[in-house]
Amino acid sequence: MTQNSLPDFARVEGGAIAGRYMAQFWQPIAMGSDYPVGKARRIKMLGNFYTLYRGEDERLRLTQDRCPHRGTSLAYGWVEGNSIRCRYHGWKFDGEGKGQHFPAETATYASKICLKTYPVREYLGLVFAFLGQGEAPEFQTFPEADDESFGELIVRAVELPYNFFQRIENDHDEVHAHYTHPQMESYGFKELPWITARETDYGLLSVAKRKEGPTFETHCFMPNVQLREVPLQQDKTQVSLHLAWRVPIDDSTTYSVMVNRVATYDESMRGREANMEDPGEIAARVMSCEISLDEVDPDYPLLPIVQDTVSIGGQGVIADRSSENLGQSDRAIALLRQLWAREMALLERGEPLKRWHRPKDFVFKSEDALSTV
Hints:
Elements: H1 17-22, E1 27-31, E2 40-45, E3 48-54, E4 60-64, E5 78-80, E6 83-85, E7 92-93, E8 99-101, H2 107-111, E9 117-118, E10 120-123, E11 126-129, H3 143-146, E12 152-160, H4 164-170, H5 177-180, E13 194-199, E14 203-209, E15 216-221, E16 225-231, E17 239-248, E18 254-262, H6 268-274, H7 279-287, H8 303-313, H9 331-349
Antiparallel strand pairs: 1-11, 2-3, 3-4, 4-9, 5-6, 6-7, 7-8, 10-11, 12-18, 13-14, 14-15, 15-16, 16-17, 17-18
Helix pairs in contact: 7-8
């Protein structure tokens, strides 16, 4: 597959094939803590708007965004019990999306009109939704993230100002760590790794091996989930279990979710993190040449996000892959593209997709993989 023959991985809006493919899988769409009982918000994912709210039974519900009456966003209305009422003309829909009370209409008329609703599930402090057609697939859990023996659970979500597929590719680019993240040298990253990659039952496994120093294994659960260990910015003596989803909000913005298990967390960092500057704002200042990356505090807790935003965003909001020249160090990225291209082609032809699954004998890390630094 030449770079000029690559399908369009980036665009998800307007029924694009990449968006239709992503909609085949459960995706994180919000942080559960942002939705107390009675709270409704408008969210955008895969290029479309939805309304998400929590009823008095504490369950979250996801519906089409616009009221079927005159098209106002339901998120601007209010929650009544487990129902939501539109602010424009008071149309009320129950927790299953059925018309319940239309003040200026008959009960018979109301009973004929329903909202489109979507399956929702809370897991690891996140809100997941299935936005595709038909029956939702089995929900994928991650025992490693559930295991409290790995340490304290820390969950973050940030919006990134560039396309989601660039962020997924970066998850399998081990060489960039030596240049985009120079602080990694203190973790033993003193030589460039040899990269191997292979397709698995769940997606792909890429391995970055060094003659001297740590070996890292990165598991990609298709289409957009990363599971690995990462060096901990807050404490350079340890690594963290790292589980991440990269979800397109639209063609130019990414919802990046990171779940970490940290054995010991530097308590002095908590207060600092609560009051720290947004990483996107710092990255914007760097990319406007107001400051350089070298001027960013090296102890800033989310420094890797700033560094990645500058490097990945530096490709452009949507990267032009037609002029790339991939090398042996890009094996994992090339394989990722091949898997996506194959599955997108199957979907476009209406043929069955590969049934990705986590095998019972799945091993999070081999004996050669990094466990301490």
